[in-house]
Design brief:
Among the domains are: 2-242, Sandwich (Immunoglobulin-like); 319-501, Neutral Protease Domain 2 (Neutral Protease, domain 2); 506-634, Immunoglobulin-like, CATH 2.60.40.1840. The chain has 28 helices and 31 strands. The strands form eight sheets. Strands 1, 2, 3, 5, 6, 9, 12 and 14 form an eight-stranded mixed β-sheet that branches. A five-stranded mixed β-sheet has the order 16-17-18-20-19, covered by helices on one side. Strand 25 (541-548) and strand 26 (554-562) form a beta hairpin. The radius of gyration is 29 Å and the shape is globular. The structure holds zinc ion. Zinc ion binds next to helix 5 and helix 6.
C-alpha cells in the first residue's frame, strides 16, 4: 500500500522550533539511499536510515519529505500502515516503535517522486542540442539531472532530517541508464559489487511496489559511492546524465574532475579552472591551517542552475553562464569566474567542515567565502597573472549598501524562524555587507592575528556546527593574545562586532572643510551621520583619507578611527601644505558607508575623473555618484552627462561594465519618460564612436559591445545593427572590421527587431532562423521565447501573459524567465498597459500557487515600472496590509516594490524640476 501527500504542491517551510526539538533527541544518523534515476520524469527507490535517540521524544518525531508517494515504511522491522503518517511534507514515526537510550533504530521507506523544473531538489533538463545528433542513434535522449539542496531542498528528494545541525554520513547508489555518468560527494567505489547487487535488487523491488515496469527503464548500470564524511543535508549532491569530464591528478592535491554536458564540454577552460582551484587550495591551507578536508574535488557545470554556483561537499555545481559558449572571454569575465571558483572552494572549510547551526548564521557562511575569495584572488602568487584588484570587490559592497538603504534591511545576523525566511536572506546584506564587515575586521586586526584566529577556529570546531559567538570569540582570543597597537588599550573587539552585526542601516561619511585663502586646508572635519533606514547607529571604523593636489596626486592620512560617540571627527591635516582640489574620505575603500563629497571635490571628480590614477577610487566615484542620484543630491540628467564625459576615458573593463549597466537602468527608470528615447540615441552614438577609435584597448571594447544594443531603438540605429549582423562584425566608418560579433551579440540584435512594429513578421522570423541556424541549445530556445513574447501583437501578448500566470504549466522556470524578459517594451506602451493593473490582481494567486523562486522572478520582471501611477503604490500598500504575518517573505517583497516605485517617482520628478530650472 502506498501513501501520497495531498500537500505535495503546497509550499511548506521547516520551522526552527521543530529542528531544535529534533536536535535534542536525534543523533548518529546515517542515510543509505538506493535510487533508480531513469530517463523521463519520475524516479523511485529505497532509503534506509539508522539513528539513535537520547530518549523517546514527548511528541512524534518526523522526517521531512516532499515527495509524490511513499510505501513500505518500516520502523525497527514493523510495517507502519497508517495513512496519515505521511502528510504536509513530513513522515511521522510512531513513538511506540522507536527505541531510546542510544539503541540503534532502523527505518526504511520506499519512495516515488518526480523530477522538478524549478531548480529545487532534483532538476531535470533535456538537451535538445545534443538530441538532434543522438536521435538517429537508437533514439537516445540527452537528459541531465542535478540537485540543489540549499536551503532545505534535500527533503524534496530524500526523506531526511533537513536541518544543518543534524550532520550525517550518507551512502548512495544510483541505478541509471548505461551511458550516464553519476557524480556525488564521494568517488564511485568500483569494488563494491555486493552493494551494487543489493541496490539493483532494492530498486527492482521498489519498482514493483509502485507498479512500475522495471524493464521499461531499459539497460542500466549501478554506480555505488563510498560513504561520505559527516556532513549536513544541504550539502549532499547528485548529478546524473551523459556528462563528460577531464581529470587532473597532481601530487599534494586531491583528485579533481571538471564535468559538463556533452554538447558544452568544448567550452570549458579546464586549464585555468584547475590552476585557480589549486592556487586556492594552497592559499586556504596556509590561512586556515588545514589541508583541503575532503577526498576529491569535482566541479560540474549543470544546465539551468538556479543560482551562480553551489558548494556541495567535493561536488561543486556551476551555472553554465560561466562557460564561454562561442566567445573569447574578456579578462573581467574570467576574473569573475575565478572569483566564484574560489568562493565555492572556501566553503569547503567554512560551511562544509565547520557548519552554521541554523540559517540565522547564513551570512557568516556567505560573507566569509565571499571575502576570502577576494583575499585569495588579490594575493595568491599563482593568480597574479589575472591582475585582479579590489576594484572587483566594489559591486559587492554596493550591493550591500543598496539593500541597506531600503526599509527591508535587517541586521547582518538576524532571527530566522523557518526556511521560508532563510530563502529571503541570500541577499546583499548577507553577502555584500557581511563581506565588507569581514574586510573591515581584516584591516583592523591585521593578517597575522586573523590567521591565528582562523587556525584556532578550524582546530576547535572541525566537523561540528557553530554559532556566531564561536567565530567572533575565537578571533577575540587571537586579538587578546597577539594585540594590535593601532587599536589602543580601550578597544573592545566583541562590543565593536556587536555594533555592526546586530544593528542595520548604513552610515554617511562626509567631509566639512574650511580652506585658507591659498586653497590649502585650515580645518578638516569628517561628519558621520545615520542613513534613514534600519536600526541605525554611529559606528567606529578605520578610514584612509586622500587629499589631491592640482595635479591629481594624492597624499594620505591613514588609519583614522571614526568615532562611534560623536558625529564630528576633527582630522589633523596640518602636515599637508598647498592647494587641495579633491578630498576622498574613503581612500583605498576600507570603509563601509555612503560617501559624500564636498562641492569642490564633486565638481573636480565630475569634470576630470580620468586624471585620477587609482582605479579603485575611480570605481568608487562611479558608484557614489549613482547613490547621489538615488538620494536626489544630483539629478539623473547630471549623471547622464557625467557618463557621456567620462566613459571614453575609462580603461578598466569592470568599471565600464558597471557604468553602462547602471546607465541602462538609469535611462529606463530614472530619466523623465520624455527623455528616454533621445538619451538612448545619444548613448548609442557615443559608444559607436568610441568603438571606432583606434586607441581603444580590445578588452575595453567587450563591455561596450555587450551593452551597446540596449541603446539602439531608433530605426536608423537598428539599421546600423542589422548591417553589422549581416557581415558578423562591427565596422569602422571606412568599413574595416573592428569587432567580431559573438553569437550572443547577434541574438541581441535580433531581439531589437522583434518588438519593433516597423518590421513585418516574415522578416523577423527569417532573421531569427538565419541567426540561430541549427542551434537547438537552451540559449537558442530562450531567445525564441523572448522574441516571441516581445512581438507587438495584442493577441499574442495575451497568450504569453496567460502562460506566465498558469501555475499548472510544465515549462521550466527559466523558459518562463526568458518570456518575461521580452514582455514589456517601450515601443508597445499601448499594448502592455492593461497588464500594469492585471499584475497586481494576479500577484496574490502567484504567491499562493507557485514556488517562491518563481514569485520573485515574476515580481521583479513584471512589476510595472515604465509608467508610475499613484494607484499602483496604493495597490501595493493594500496588498501588503492584507498579507498575514506568516507570509513575511511576500510582505517583504511588497514593501520593497513600494519603495522602489516611490523612489523612481521622486527621482523622475527631481530630474524634471532641475531640467525646468536649467531652462
Ligand atoms: Zn556561497
Amino acid at each position: 500500500m502506498s501513501f501520497s501527500d495531498q500537500a505535495y504542491d503546497t509550499n511548506i517551510y521547516i520551522k526552527r522550533s521543530d529542528c531544535e526539538f529534533r536536535k535534542e533527541y536525534v543523533k548518529d544518523v546515517t542515510y543509505n539511499v538506493q535510487y533508480c534515476l531513469p530517463k523521463g520524469d519520475h524516479y523511485f527507490g529505497l532509503v534506509n536510515i539508522d539513528l539513535t535517540l537520547n530518549k523517546i521524544p514527548h511528541s512524534r518525531l518526523f522526517l521531512d519529505f516532499r515527495g509524490v508517494s511513499i510505501s513500505g515504511l518500516t520502523v525497527n522491522g514493523t510495517l507502519v500502515e497508517e495513512a496519515t503518517c505521511f502528510r504536509d511534507h513530513k513522515i511521522y514515526l510512531p513513538s511506540n516503535l522507536l527505541l531510546g537510550d542510544g539503541q540503534n533504530n532502523k527505518i526504511s521507506i520506499n519512495v516515488h517522486n518526480k523530477y522538478r523544473k524549478d531548480g529545487m531538489g532534483l532538476h531535470t533538463f533535456n538537451d535538445n542540442q545534443d538530441n538532434v545528433r543522438l536521435q538517429f542513434i537508437n533514439n537516445i535522449q540527452a537528459q541531465y539531472l542535478y540537485t540543489q539542496f540549499e536551503a532545505d531542498y534535500c527533503h524534496f528528494v530524500i526523506p531526511v532530517f533537513d536541518q544543518p545541525d543534524i550532520k550525517a554520513k550518507w551512502t548512495f547508489s544510483a541505478v541509471v541508464p548505461t551511458e550516464w555518468n553519476v557524480v556525488s560527494n564521494e568517488a564511485v567505489d568500483e569494488s563494491a559489487s555486493e552493494r551494487m547487487e543489493t541496490a539493483l535488487a532494492a530498486v527492482k523491488q521498489s519498482a514493483s511496489i509502485f507498479g512500475i515496469d522495471f524493464a521499461s527503464v531499459g539497460d542500466v548500470k549501478v554506480h555505488t559511492f563510498h560513504q561520505s564524511f559527516k556532513i549536513s543535508t544541504y550539502l549532499y549532491a547528485i548529478c546524473a546524465g551523459p556528462y563528460e569530464y577531464q581529470e587532473r591528478v597532481t601530487e599534494g592535491f586531491p583528485k579533481m574532475r571538471i564535468y559538463a554536458r556533452r554538447s558544452l564540454i568544448k567550452d570549458c577552460d579546464f586549464s585555468e579552472m584547475f590552476t585557480v582551484t589549486q592556487a586556492g587550495m594552497k592559499f586556504y591551507h596556509d590561512l586556515f591551517g588545514k589541508q583541503y578536508p575532503f577526498n576529491k574535488y569535482d566541479q560540474i557545470f549543470t544546465p539551468e542552475h538556479s543560482s551562480g554556483a553551489m558548494e556541495n561537499v567535493g561536488c561543486v555545481t556551476y551555472n553554465e553562464i560561466y562557460l564561454f559558449r562561442g566567445e573569447v572571454p574578456s579578462l573581467a569575465k574570467r576574473q569573475k569566474f575565478s572569483n566564484t571558483n574560489l568562493h565555492e572552494l572556501a566553503h569547503m572549510w567554512f560551511g562544509n567542515l565547520v557548519t552554521m547551526k541554523w540559517w540565522n548564521d547564513l551570512w557568516l557562511n556567505e560573507s566569509f567565502a565571499t571575502f576570502m575569495a577576494y583575499l585569495c584572488q588579490t594575493n595568491a602568487p599563482e593568480l597574479s597573472y589575472q591582475k585582479t584588484s579590489w576594484v572587483t570587490f566594489l559591486p559587492l559592497k554596493f550591493w550591500g549598501i543598496s539593500e541597506d538603504i531600503l526599509s527591508k534591511t535587517h541586521p547582518i545576523t538576524c532571527e530566522i524562524n523557518d526556511t521560508g525566511e532563510a530563502e529571503t536572506i541570500f541577499d546583499g546584506i548577507s553577502y555584500g555587507k557581511g563581506a565588507s564587515f569581514l574586510q573591515i575586521v581584516y584591516n583592523l586586526l591585521g593578517h597575522d592575528v586573523v590567521k591565528q584566529g582562523l587556525h584556532a577556529y578550524f582546530d576547535k570546531y572541525q566537523w561540528q556546527n557553530t554559532e556566531l559567538k564561536d567565530f567572533v570569540g575565537t578571533l577575540n582570543e587571537a586579538y587578546t593574545q597577539y594585540g594590535n597597537e593601532k587599536l589602543g588599550k580601550d578597544f573592545n573587539f566583541l562590543e565593536w562586532c556587536d555594533s555592526w552585526l546586530t544593528t542595520s542601516g548604513v552610515n554617511i561619511l562626509e567631509p566639512q572643510i574650511t580652506y585658507n585663502a591659498d586653497g590649502s586646508i585650515r580645518q578638516l572635519l569628517v561628519k558621520q551621520t545615520n542613513d534613514l533606514r534600519g536600526k541605525n547607529k554611529l559606528r567606529a571604523q578605520m578610514i584612509d583619507i586622500a587629499l589631491y593636489d592640482e595635479n591629481f596626486q594624492p597624499t594620505f592620512i591613514r588609519d583614522y578611527m571614526i568615532s562611534d560617540k560623536v558625529e564630528l571627527n576633527d582630522i589633523d591635516a596640518s602636515h599637508h601644505v598647498g592647494k587641495v582640489t579633491i578630498i576622498n574620505v574613503n581612500a583605498n575603500d576600507h570603509a563601509y558607508a555612503k560617501i559624500r563629497y564636498d562641492q569642490k571635490s564633486l565638481d573636480n571628480f565630475v569634470a576630470s575623473l580620468y586624471k585620477v590614477r587609482d582605479e579603485v577610487t575611480r570605481g568608487q566615484v562611479w558608484r557614489n555618484l549613482w547613490l547621489l542620484v538615488v538620494d536626489r543630491k544630483i539629478s539623473s540628467l547630471q549623471y547622464f552627462d557625467f557618463v557621456i564625459q567620462q566613459i571614453s576615458h575609462e580603461s578598466v573593463d569592470q568599471i565600464i561594465q558597471v557604468a553602462l549597466m547602471n546607465l541602462t537602468s538609469l535611462i529606463s527608470l530614472y530619466l523623465p519618460t520624455s527623455e528616454v528615447l533621445g538619451k538612448k540615441r545619444i548613448m548609442f552614438e557615443t559608444l559607436k564612436h568610441l568603438l571606432q577609435r583606434s586607441d581603444i584597448e580590445p578588452s575595453t571594447r567587450v563591455p561596450i559591445v555587450d551593452n551597446l544594443f540596449g541603446f539602439a531603438s531608433s530605426p536608423d540605429h537598428i539599421k546600423v545593427c542589422l548591417d553589422w549582423l549581416e557581415i558578423g562584425a562591427i565596422t569602422s566608418e571606412s568599413g574595416e572590421e573592428i569587432f567580431k560579433l559573438a553569437q550572443k551579440h547577434k541574438q541581441s540584435i535580433v531581439k531589437l527587431v522583434f518588438p519593433d512594429p516597423s518590421f513585418d513578421l516574415e522578416f523577423k522570423n527569417a532573421l531569427l532562423e538565419k541567426t540561430l541556424g541549427d542551434d537547438k541549445s537552451d540559449i537558442a530556445v530562450n531567445v525564441r521565447e523572448t522574441c516571441n513574447a516581445s512581438l507587438p501583437d495584442t493577441e499574442n501578448k495575451r497568450k504569453v501573459w496567460d502562460s506566465l500566470i498558469d501555475h499548472t504549466t510544465q515549462d521550466s522556470i527559466y523558459k518562463r524567465g526568458a518570456r518575461m524578459s521580452g514582455f514589456y517594451n517601450w515601443k508597445q506602451l499601448d499594448i502592455v498597459q492593461p497588464y500594469f493593473d492585471e499584475f497586481y490582481e494576479i500577484l496574490p494567486t502567484i504567491y499562493e500557487k507557485t514556488p517562491f523562486k518563481y514569485v520573485e522572478s515574476f515580481f521583479y520582471s513584471l512589476l510595472p515600472r515604465m509608467e508610475i501611477h499613484d494607484r499602483h503604490i496604493v495597490k501595493l500598500l493594500q496588498l501588503k496590509n492584507a498579507t498575514p504575518d506568516n507570509q513575511s517573505n511576500f510582505a517583504s517583497l511588497l514593501s520593497e516594490g513600494t519603495e522602489l516605485i516611490l523612489r523612481q517617482k521622486l527621482i523622475r520628478e527631481f530630474a524634471e524640476k532641475s531640467f525646468q530650472e536649467k531652462l
